[in-house]
Specification:
The protein is an alpha/beta fold and 630 residues long. Among the domains are: 140 residues, Rossmann fold, CATH 3.40.50; 120 residues, 2-Layer Sandwich (GMP Synthetase, Chain A, domain 3). The strands form ten sheets. The protein has a seven-stranded mixed sheet with strand order 5-4-17-16-18-19-20, with helices on both faces. Helix 11 packs across helix 12. It is globular and about 70 Å long. Bound molecules: coenzyme A (COA) and adenosine monophosphate. Coenzyme A binds next to strand 9 and helix 11.
Length: 630
């Protein structure tokens, strides 16, 4: 069947489509139907089923006689370690850790925060929670204590599972001060922590609060899989919105299983047993869906890679991993390829490796620029598929369904909508626009299984962020267009979210931090174009009256403040002290115009601007840091 047949088949009978996809999952109690719409515009899927995610990701493969197959390959160029973990080993490790969690009082529905680097134990911790119906929330290691504290207060976890350290090139990231700092800052205190001691930097455990990863498992009864309802939250993953308070995206258990399993063949074109590699981090949605859950649910081998595309030890690392582990489908962010291209522009290093087993490269997380796609295609000799999705959806909204039918690639487009998604372009007034017309990208409700049914503890915010602007639709926050062949183009965000090295960040969140500096009266943060990371944040601060200190000193304090409060991942290194910010007469800061100036693009003078001269001042300030060249 062609993509069009399958897409149209879904559109004609969504219920039948998803019930058929659900047959690939092992249910404790089968769902009686797919969609539950009695609470529209809030929708849920497979609500009356009983199921366990860990059973589907681990135990069922062992039960089917595949216990010896490798489930996880850990490859850490940073430490030089490599490990192959079979499905049977994984079952044993996960059931023991889950048993330890149970012995310490973790029950179905309890939250557990996971704060770990890219080690297989991070995946084991996620699966151990899923095994007993605990709801995990993984926090990316590059966030500071304050961000962890915000998540502690929102998720109110009974426990934290962490490692003693993470390893960045040339730097040990000590987790203990971050953990202690977060617990101090947060109002909600976890009952206990489980700490994986890494030999690169073991730590002293806090008596009565911290338990060693291995000791806590000593003598425990391994836990069985606990069946949960279809709409039980599998996890909460916090993502950036317009303010500093992150949004807790809920992932519903049954829909997650069904949808992710469907994507592995139809989008990523792998069969059970194939090696699938997503070079991302478990702290992001790509890591949740495509390092941990989807490959394991589908019976693939997944790779946990603790390294960077360059510098660990060189720009040939990706080729080495693909070749050594026979990777079939590979997924990463365009930034990683821009980094490789910068270090090895002619792609010399790839010549040392045989990557002939690789069938395709998948890019997502940020705009894939044509140069990068073409370069990757040239040196790798495989198709490069851009695909577009979000933390909220958990899997592809628009992509190239290579396992159904590889559609012709149009560079600059992530291709077409996947079954489950009726993607439309809307005007500001909510009218559907025609082919090639630019507008807000919206998805007709209901969203498919596995996508967010709500935000944790924040139903009003859920409605306000996604449902209210265009009644009957989910607002993606992206703007773009669809051409006359149904190919989608993603052009920009419609909010203040920026994308730095494939990491989604809130400029509003950074502004809240800058505004807390005692000398700052007002501020604005914008995302400017960066050749490597796609975008970089630049902060503008206006000082309070009477502040007479060196501007450089204040700017560097601002940089430190954002690093301390949000974390190194914000990559906030550019702060400028200016006299005034450009505003409309009603006082709205003209951030979009500032971005155009920084990127040396033409712009139309906003009709409502209060004082156009300020734009010249902004331009002059940007020129001091190498932007606004024209
Ligand atoms: N724990 C602690 N710190 C982390 C971290 C982690 N897990 N991940 C990143 N950081 C730190 C980095 O060390 C860096 O710190 P520094 O300011 O002291 O140098 C900072 O956060 C910014 O990191 P990053 O934006 O990743 O930049 P980089 O210069 O270290 O690396 C790339 C550049 C291109 C190599 C890197 O961004 C990369 O591999 N990108 C791939 C994108 C990706 O996987 N995205 C995931 C979504 S699919
Ligand atoms: P995240 O939730 O971190 O995955 O970020 C999702 C956002 O990243 C989307 O809303 C887009 O703005 C952007 N994004 C993700 N994938 C793509 C892509 N393939 N092309 C353009 N932008 C993308």
């Amino acid at each position: 069947m062609s993509y069009h047949d399958i897409y149209n088949g879904w559109k004609a009978d969504p219920e039948g489509f998803w019930m058929e996809a659900a047959e690939a999952i092992d249910w404790v109690e089968k769902p009686s139907k797919a969609l539950f719409d009695d609470n529209a515009p809030l929708y849920e899927w497979f609500v009356d089923a009983k199921v366990n995610t860990c059973w589907n990701a681990v135990d069922r493969h062992v039960a089917a006689g595949k216990g010896d197959q490798t489930a996880i390959i850990y490859d850490s160029p940073i430490t030089g370690r490599k490990e192959h973990i079979s499905y049977a080993d994984l079952q044993s490790r996960v059931s023991h850790l889950a048993g330890a969690l149970q012995a310490k009082g973790i029950e179905i529905g309890d939250r557990v925060i996971i704060y770990m680097p890219m080690v297989p134990q991070a995946v084991e911790a996620m699966l151990a929670c899923a095994r007993i119906g605990a709801i995990h929330s993984v926090v990316f290691g590059g966030f500071a204590a304050n961000e962890l504290a915000v998540r502690l207060d929102d998720a109110a976890p009974k426990a934290i599972i962490a490692a003693s350290c993470g390893l960045e090139p040339g730097r040990v990231v000590e987790y203990k001060p971050l953990l202690d700092g977060a617990i101090d800052l947060a109002e909600h205190k976890p009952e206990f922590c489980i700490i994986l001691q890494r030999e690169e930097h073991p730590i002293e455990l806090t008596e009565g609060r911290d338990y060693d990863w291995y000791e806590v498992q000593d003598g425990v009864t391994p836990a069985d899989c606990v069946p949960v309802a279809g709409n039980h939250p599998a996890y909460i993953l916090y993502t950036s919105g317009t303010t500093g308070a992150p949004k807790g995206v809920i992932r519903p258990t049954a829909g997650h299983l069904v949808a992710l399993n469907w994507t592995m063949k139809n989008i990523y074109n792998v069969d059970p047993g194939d090696v699938f590699w997503a070079a991302s981090d478990v702290g992001w949605v790509v890591g949740h869906s495509y390092i941990c859950y989807a490959p394991l649910i589908h019976g693939n081998t997944t790779i946990v890679f603790e390294g960077k595309p360059v510098g660990t030890p060189d720009a040939g690392t990706f080729w080495r991993v693909i070749s050594e582990h026979n990777v079939r489908s590979f997924f990463t962010a365009p930034t990683a390829f821009r980094a490789i291209k910068r270090d090895d522009p002619k792609g010399e290093l790839i010549k040392d490796y045989d990557i002939s087993n690789l069938r395709a490269l998948y890019l997502a997380g940020e705009r894939a620029d044509p140069d990068t796609i073409e370069w990757a295609q040239d040196i790798m000799g495989v198709p490069v598929y851009d695909h577009w999705w979000q933390t909220e959806t958990g899997f592809t909204i628009a992509g190239n369904p290579a396992g159904i039918e590889a559609l012709p690639v149009k560079i600059g487009s992530p291709t077409v909508a996947m079954p489950g998604y009726d993607v439309q372009i809307l005007s500001d007034e909510g009218h559907q626009l025609g082919a090639n017309e630019l507008g807000a990208i919206a998805i007709k409700l209901p969203l498919p299984p596995g996508t967010l049914p709500n935000l944790w503890n924040a139903e009003d915010r859920f409605k306000k962020s996604y449902l209210n602007t265009f009644p009957g639709y989910y607002e993606t926050g992206d703007a773009g267009m669809i051409d006359d062949e149904g190919y989608l183009y993603i052009m920009a965000r419609t909010d203040d979210v920026i994308n730095v090295a494939g990491h989604r960040l809130s400029t509003g969140g950074m502004e809240e931090v800058l505004a807390a500096h005692p000398d700052v009266a007002e501020c604005a943060v914008i995302g400017v174009t960066d050749a490597l990371k796609g975008q970089l944040p630049v902060g503008f601060v206006c000082l309070s009256k009477g502040v007479n200190r060196q501007h450089d000193e204040i700017a560097s304090e601002c940089v430190t403040l954002v690093r301390d409060r949000i974390g190194p991942v914000a990559a906030f290194k550019l702060a400028l002290v200016v006299d005034r910010l450009p505003k409309t007469r009603s006082g709205k800061i003209l951030r979009a115009t500032m971005v155009k100036i920084a990127d040396s693009e033409e712009f139309k003078m906003p009709a409502t601007i209060d004082d156009p001269v300020i734009l010249d001042e902004i331009k002059a300030a940007l020129q001091t840091i190498g932007y606004a060249k024209a």
